[in-house]
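Sequence design from tokenized structure. All designs in this work follow the same two-part layout: the structure record, then the generated sequence. An example of the structure record is given first.
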């Protein structure tokens, strides 16, 4: 059996039907854990989401599982070592969302430096008295030093856009490649010099909590933190304190820890913090392309062909 853990457009799932029985969790909410574990008993191919935890327990419940195909590029929710030990192939969806996430990054950067959410709330709440020469002032986006943490596909696409905004780029990444746009610098230097620090790194044991109290205090007092990667890169409570105490000027977060954030979370009580619900790749084109690639990976994996985007264990 093939298990698809979320409702996806029928036309995109069509190729799966030639492979046998397909069970789709027909909901916009994640499949409850107990239901997923029970279903996994007879599953050969899993088309899963970043909200599904594919750990030892899930794999132990899935003795026939041959392929995990995730509709996301990030695979931090999948125990990749455990999959490798069991000979389970893992696919993901790099590339097709890169430019869309970079667009979102620029939207978040512009919104936080120019205080768009605050300004919009002012209008909606009837507090727009008149045009005012010194009200609702923000910072410029153009000309700011842009510090990119993690120079993968999204990092490069963000750096490419920075040219049009006259933003000098510095970046920090484990293995700088010749030709990457911008100047590679140690993380400390990036934090100390950037007007905007943008997190584009994958979540791994090495990057988890990489932005904590110490790193936030290395940032410029007028700088902004932008996270479009994974929430746990940042120590959330340290960020709340830094935003509240004016250690940095603001943050725009498309990803947070935890997700979802409850409406009474302290981050949401801060005017200098903008939070969006993990929508970096949420354009119609990108999400359809991600689903289609996840289907192609699954079909290829189950038929013994080359998967278009297989995660390589090395
Ligand atoms: C991914 O693909 O990992 C993204 O976070 C989904 O938008």
């Amino acid at each position: 059996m093939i298990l698809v853990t979320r409702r996806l457009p029928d036309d995109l799932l069509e190729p799966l039907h030639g492979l046998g029985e397909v069970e789709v969790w027909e909901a916009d909410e994640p499949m409850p854990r107990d239901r997923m574990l029970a279903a996994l008993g007879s599953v050969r191919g899993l088309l899963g989401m970043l909200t599904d935890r594919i750990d030892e327990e899930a794999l132990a419940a899935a003795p026939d599982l041959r392929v995990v195909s995730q509709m996301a590029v990030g695979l931090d929710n999948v125990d990749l070592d455990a999959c490798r030990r069991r000979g389970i192939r893992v696919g993901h969806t790099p590339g097709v969302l890169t430019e869309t996430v970079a667009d979102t990054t620029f939207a978040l950067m512009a919104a936080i430096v120019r205080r768009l959410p605050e300004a919009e709330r002012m209008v909606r709440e009837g507090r727009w008295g008149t045009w005012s020469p010194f009200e609702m002032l923000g910072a410029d986006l153009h000309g700011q030093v842009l510090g990119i943490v993690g120079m993968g596909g999204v990092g490069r696409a963000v750096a490419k856009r920075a040219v049009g905004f006259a933003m000098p780029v510095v970046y920090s990444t484990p293995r700088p490649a010749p030709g990457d746009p911008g100047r590679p610098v140690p993380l400390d230097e990036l934090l100390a010099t950037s007007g905007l620090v943008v997190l584009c790194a994958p979540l791994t044991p090495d990057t988890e909590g990489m932005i904590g109290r110490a790193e936030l205090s290395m940032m410029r007092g007028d700088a902004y933190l932008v996270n479009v990667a994974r929430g746990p890169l940042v120590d959330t409570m340290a960020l709340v304190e830094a935003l509240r105490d004016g250690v940095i000027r603001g943050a725009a977060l498309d990803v947070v820890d935890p997700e979802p954030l409850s409406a009474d979370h302290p981050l949401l009580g801060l005017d200098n913090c903008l939070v969006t619900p993990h929508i970096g790749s949420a354009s119609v084109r990108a999400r359809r392309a991600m689903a289609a690639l996840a289907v192609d990976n699954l079909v290829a994996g189950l038929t013994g062909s080359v998967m278009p985007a297989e995660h390589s264990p090395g």
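Residues 232 and 307 are 29 Å apart (CA to CA). We note this feature because it recurs in several other targets discussed in the main text.
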